[in-house]
Amino acid sequence: MLSDIEIAQKNTMAPITEIAGKIGIAEDGLDMYGRYKAKLTVEELRTLQKKASDPANRGRLILVTAITPTPAGEGKSTVSIGLGDGLRRIGKKAVIALREPSLGPCFGVKGGACGGGYAQVVPMEDINLHFTGDIHAISIANNLIAALIDNHIQQGNELEIDPRTITWKRCVDLNDRALRNIIVGLGGRSNGVPREDHFCISVASEIMAIVCLSRTIKELKDKLSNIIIAQNYSRRPVKFGDLKCTGAVAALLKDAVRPNLVQTLEKTPAFVHGGPFANIAHGCNSINATLCALATGDYVVTEAGFAADLGAEKFMDIKCRMFGLAPSAVVIVATIRALKMHGGVAKAELGKPDTKALEAGFANLAVHLENIGKFGVPAIVAVNRFTTDTPEEIKLLEDLCSQSGARVVLSEGWANGGQGMEELAKAVDELCDESKADFHELYGLELPLDKKIEKIAKEIYRAGEVQFDGAALKKLKTYEEQGYGSLPVCIAKTQNSISHDAKLYGAPHGYTFPVRDVQLYAGAGFVVAFAGDIMVMPGLPKLPAALNIDIDDDGKISGLF
Questions:
Q1: pTM higher than 0.90, yes or no?
Q2: Residue 34 falls in which region: left (phi positive, over 0), alpha (psi -120 to 50) or beta
Q3: How many CA atoms lie within 13 A of 477 on its CB side?
Q4: What is the DSSP string of 451-462?
Q5: Catalytic residue list
Q6: pLDDT for the residue numbered 111
């Protein structure tokens, strides 16, 4: 059996100009990065933005989300890519919009984010490793802000920044736990003012969120200027714009705001752009990628990170709210293996038939179905089929979904590409034609910040109560006094449970949800609430994926997945 990277390397890609031509983009609308990758020019981006500004010109937006992740795997990106291919095969003009992979998971435990099997975006190695340099640009821009803050303090501190209150973190796009908590400025007067500092992974940086939520350079600069970096000695907030260096940071990001165009194995156009994590950030590809896809396709397949309690909620309550988007349908990805794990089966035993565990684990899928229903969008369940799935298990899952009012379709994109996704494509098309979507956000912006957090925790996570750390609650009140009370909230928590506790599989409910800290992302336009022991800088596992990655003298990479 061929590995994902071997399948990708055996594929013959079409020139990216040919892919662009399928969606009406001429060669002069592209800035080429070799033969198979391109960014849209500024002029082309503006043209497509203008077209998409009229909802009548937009394609139908399909969101792909999933059940709560398990070590058994779900395959959300694989389904997203396969569904795009499947829609093309049944005669629909489909375009895909996905996030860029972070190097952290690539070298850590999760691997890349280009799909799998015969449902992949290519060139797989390029996309997973450096691609067009967007994440590197974001990292450098983030760290330029950090350097400018420390330099301002060193050079006289005209703004009277209190070093003890600096909230801006440095970043690197790797899992490096040793950088979570550090001391900078050691070595004497000429080396800066000693203080405690921190690193986050680049895809959790506020700069990543800002790039993904900016349509123009002007919007980018406005958001950068509004970043809160610290307090002064009078306890008033200091904005990055006060340093008068916004233009320099924006200059580093001038190309990073433009979407990247690539293709699937079956030559479906795919915009891959932006990469915020959904467990610690807002988890969606860039608004520019989404708008360009909506302007060029009749169907746009996009995904939001992790499960419906994380990526989908943030997609609806943050991204769709900010830009007036309205999904026509949602696909919830599940596997029988993962549902059995939610039902109490150990990973080593998942290959054995177990309808009792499947029925117990279905509670997790049922919660996510209910969650999507709270946004007024119809949902369909896509089951990634494994060879160990028995007819009895498949029939039981179909019956359980039917009892919950949801249609279920077997997904075989990993093994058969678009051909294995035609049934799902037809079902999604039918669901959209029924025009049942009545999209609305979960909460109104007029609610106080703590009440927004409580509403998500109780209605989406099924918590019985929310327990705020005293300092966190005080910060929320301060944010409201400063005029930020009308912002949406972005909750950072584990992806491995509907709750804050990664050990709670299935469908926990009635527990106490702890909010230990909050952070104002005034530039990006939301407030982040940290629950449980979630970290903004992940660590590597005992046996990282980096152990398996290699390259030969011809430049051929192996071991990447």
A1: yes
A2: left
A3: 7
A4: HHHHHHHHHTS-
A5: 76, 78, 99, 110, 278, 306, 386, 414
A6: 85
